[in-house]
Give the backbone structure.
Amino acid sequence: MDEEYQEVEMEGISPKDVEKREEVVPGVSVADPPGSWSKEVALRVDKYILEQVEALEDKVASASMQVPGWKMPDRPLVDTLSFRPSCEEPLENDTRLDPVEVARQRLLELELAIERRYLKAPLGQSNHDVTLQTITDSKRKTKRCR
């Protein structure tokens, strides 16, 4: 092997099985091959996003920042509903929910339920140009690229 490459021996993988790949940044591990992700980990992360939105709903309600008449939406039981990882394409007749899409819808509804006076700077503006609109546009662009 060249001096540029470091020979790595892992259990069950011989050095012949490891492809020679050019390091983009010295000392950084080589990217995993496409499709080698864990569905369980992806689903756990997606559910965590939904739980964070639910926690934000609690904070808005407990701080009395909501518009009059708004009630907390029913919480889906994250452990009892059937979800699929958001990075997995839905199959035909697939009734499983995308937790990131559910979180996005809940976040949109929460934004409408917050009184406008509480959305003034710094809550209503971002110095990093990250807004719900840019997130939505980004998701649409990603879908078109697939």
